[in-house]
């Protein structure tokens, strides 16, 4: 698109369209940043091998963290239940594949992981 403004040809989209595109891009980046674990949470999940079976957005060997968040979304005691599941492990919720117990994870670490997972829904 060529437009002449004050005798100077201008090529490209109108400035208003650029402002809208920039705003959408900024909002999308901010939203994406909210759905990525903090470095500390990611390090904790990696340190305890959570990421060997789980992924943030899609199912691997185990349900994604978003699927887990959706599963617990309407349970009033979701955080406590998820913390126990993280520490004690279990089977049957997502099929036959068992989740091993993570007895090396402290209650505070389980609470941090559960809080992060639940905010992903």
Automatic annotation (TrEMBL):
Heme c binds at residues 50, 54, 99. One of its GO terms (molecular function) is electron transfer activity. The keyword Nucleotide-binding does not apply. Pfam families: Cytochrom_C (PF00034). This is Cytochrome c. Keywords: Electron transport, Heme, Iron, Metal-binding, Signal, Transport. Residues 33-121 form the Cytochrome c domain. Binds 1 heme c group covalently per subunit. InterPro entries: Cyt_c-like_dom (IPR009056), Cyt_c-like_dom_sf (IPR036909), Cyt_c_ID (IPR002324). Residues 1-32 form the signal peptide. Gene3D superfamilies: Cytochrome c-like domain.
């Amino acid at each position: 698109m060529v437009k002449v403004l004050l005798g100077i040809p201008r090529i490209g989209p109108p400035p208003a369209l650029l402002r809208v595109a920039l705003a959408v891009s900024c909002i999308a980046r901010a939203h994406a940043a909210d759905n990525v674990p903090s470095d500390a949470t990611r390090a904790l999940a990696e340190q305890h091998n959570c990421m060997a079976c789980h992924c943030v957005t899609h199912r691997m060997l185990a349900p994604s963290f978003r699927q887990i968040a959706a599963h617990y979304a309407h349970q009033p005691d979701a955080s406590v239940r998820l913390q126990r599941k993280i520490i004690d492990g279990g089977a049957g919720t997502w099929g036959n594949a068992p989740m091993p117990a993570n007895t090396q994870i402290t209650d505070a670490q389980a609470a941090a992981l559960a809080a992060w997972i639940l905010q992903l829904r």
